[in-house]
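Today's session is about reading a structure prediction critically. Students often jump straight to the picture, but the first step is always the sequence itself: look for stretches that repeat, for charged clusters, for runs of hydrophobic residues. Only then move on to the predicted structure, which in these notes is written as discrete structure tokens rather than atom positions. Here is the chain we will use throughout the hour.
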Amino acid sequence: MRPWPVPTDNSGWVCCQLGAREHYAVPRALHRLGRLAHLVTDAWMPPGSVLHELPGSRSKRLSERYHEELAGASVTHFTTSLVAHEVMWSVTGLRGWDLFQTRNQWFQDRAASAIGGMTLPPGVTVFAHSYAALEIFRVAKRRGWRCVLAQIDPGERHFSIVHDAALQAPEYGPPPPAPPQEYFDHWRQECALADRIIVNSQWSRDCLAQAGVPAEKMSIAPLAYEPEGVSAVAHSYPDRFSVDRPLRVLFVGQASVAKGIKTLLDSMALLEDRPIALTIVGERPAQVPQPHLENPRITWVGPVSRREVMDHYRAADVLIFPSLSDGFGMAQIEAQGWALPIVASRSCGLVVDHGINGLLLPEVTPRAIADAVITLVTDPRKLADFSRGSASGASGGLSALGRALESLVAA
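Below is the predicted structure for this chain, in token form.
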């Protein structure tokens, strides 16, 4: 493994990260540049950890809470405490937003205490994600450090879109519970304390600006992704699709109304005479009507490990990403990393260069999705062209992300 450099001046970063978001992309990018002073995270499971012996799904989830590229980094974690608290929260029946906020607060308190005791110079930059940054930023500000907030979603407008979409599709179940007002009150304090706010798309930036977040604080930094151990290679396609070799359409993510699952499933009724097979990978929080669950042209895979998701990208012909609102849409950039063409909405990160590596939907409707799929199923050459475009236009990766972060605080 490459020995990455360590910070030698006052420009180091302390990354406070709850979860393995984006496969630790930000700390990895900074580590490569020698700018990661410290990673503070909730769980860290290096090889040989005794916690790998935990029974059941908890051990499986924790097993992915590590990245070998950060093996030489300075890491503070609270794994044992997290496991104990997860058990306690489960026993006490904590659920939904109560659990989400409690976990966020648990992490903030410990991370704030950790950085408060660090011996670091005043030129440090502290990085944290929205909704779990407030206590961390309060300590950082007292120490004279810069604060960078990574916004994980489009903010309040996102939840409004999610609620309204669910109301229009009652057969998929009631709207998900809305965040409590305290959730956004704390978020606004985070935004006020932040020196810079990173958003992953123009869509998120516009939504935050409408909520009153100062435009001059915000910068767009698209997600970075590097397929592990492979390089993007264009897919091959048959001369024509048939019942025996249908167009393999892949959906990755939560099968929820807000992610466009209702619209996608409704589009299948408009494609009954076309050779199409749809695979849906991810959790299914929505109450999907039974006819869709029994449709022989739809395969419901459910949640799988990240490694298994990669297998589905390799096997697919095209990714469909019809989200009604998304901060970016990691599935898009993962698919691009595998040279997979993409059909996507415009309410997310714009990975798709229309007509080059895929198609942008003019609107998220069954007709618009069906028209896009018909374009591809009737002309496989377009898919081949889009796959080559996806391979050549793959993300600049972590090195580009690291340089963007450095220029952000240098400005």
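Discussion point for the tutorial: The chain has a mean pLDDT of 91.
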